[in-house]
């Protein structure tokens, strides 16, 4: 499998190189040259397989010959062996239509573990054959950071520098990052928003002098391998609910558009996906883009769903590229226009293409709280606020979807990560599973820096290990 950049001028890479590279050198994102396609029989054959076997079959076409099938299986067995549920991503039924796909049974209690536990092992495997030291630079609104740090802490040949918006992540999210004291872990609280942090990460990847000194890689969903691993659970849930004979709709709480783009990939591979419902909070750029074609940023508003307090959604570029006939130079021009003005209009082809599969909804705090209370009263489920945004969007669109189609909301985090917000909405204070350990008695270590690229760059350069 070859991977090409959405902006058309970076070299095409194979799976190993694309995993280690993260962002393309022309500022674009890597995407497979063509989507692999499963026949109905191949999808039917996934029924009854374990999560690990499903993962091997779904990911094999993307991995190509970078790993043998047995080696891929061994890495998946190790990665998903750390999950606390045998099914890894179990389905829970809420009522006759609505289901939850629980993605939070990994070590750090959010869906990010599904991809990052594997990515940590892929990094280690690929680095074992190279004389290279990897410098991971990432931005987090709370969950990617803890999952990535857990996945790479203490690994030889890797340093991780993780930027989070100071004061805008939950106390559990922050402590999951800052109490990891391995010498290769560096936490930076940025005096700004997640978007500021993400922009700095992308600027470092674009800085020739910096990338000449350090081998940078990404753990955010700009890294293709993140999305590849997330495609698996769409197939895993889909076949359990009747695919390929039956179509499924998915509602996805969305920020950086990675998780829902993985659903789009599953649909391109042949999974019968009836609808992908993009659920945003009041930071609603994606809802505006999908419903009106207007992709323009505003101020980021802090909400009870901090992991979705994002305006600039990295993976939207992958969708626009795929819907816009995959023309790299046109995509580069469109994105450069957006980067200059912080606004762009979707083309007709992009709007019409998106409308075939996507619906969207903007969910405010009241609708989120209502969904939380409904799930608790109706099905005894305590939802995290992000999942509740997803469920509220699922309910908003349910009447437009054939009643025979099950609607699956992706449950992206454990409620215990957002205890204060859940308590405010429902009066119930969720506990934390024992596997997170003594989070509140451990020492924290992080530095606070201004949202100034030069300051952040200098701080990282002083501590990072040159590539070779
Ligand atoms: C709990 C939770 N839900 C939803 C999202 C949004 O996912 P994505 O950025 O892939 O759209 C995030 C952050 O990414 C998250 O941490
Ligand atoms: N919500 C995310 C933001 C980063 O998203 P990613 O999927 O691109 O890593 C977080 O929790 O950090």
Automatic annotation (TrEMBL):
This is Threonine synthase. Residues 87-343 form the Tryptophan synthase beta chain-like PALP domain. The keyword Iron does not apply. GO terms for molecular function: pyridoxal phosphate binding; threonine synthase activity. SUPFAM superfamilies: Tryptophan synthase beta subunit-like PLP-dependent enzymes (SSF53686). It catalyses: O-phospho-L-homoserine + H2O = L-threonine + phosphate. It comes from Sphingomonas sanxanigenens DSM 19645 = NX02. It comes from the Bacteria. The keyword Ribonucleoprotein does not apply. NCBIfam families: thrC. Belongs to the threonine synthase family. It holds the Pfam family THR4_C. One of its GO terms (biological process) is threonine biosynthetic process. Its EC number is 4.2.3.1. The modification N6-(pyridoxal phosphate)lysine is found at residue 112. Residues 2-80 form the Threonine synthase N-terminal domain. Keywords: Amino-acid biosynthesis, Lyase, Pyridoxal phosphate, Threonine biosynthesis. PANTHER family: THREONINE SYNTHASE FAMILY MEMBER, THREONINE SYNTHASE-LIKE 2. Its cofactor is pyridoxal 5'-phosphate. Pathway: Amino-acid biosynthesis; L-threonine biosynthesis; L-threonine from L-aspartate: step 5/5.
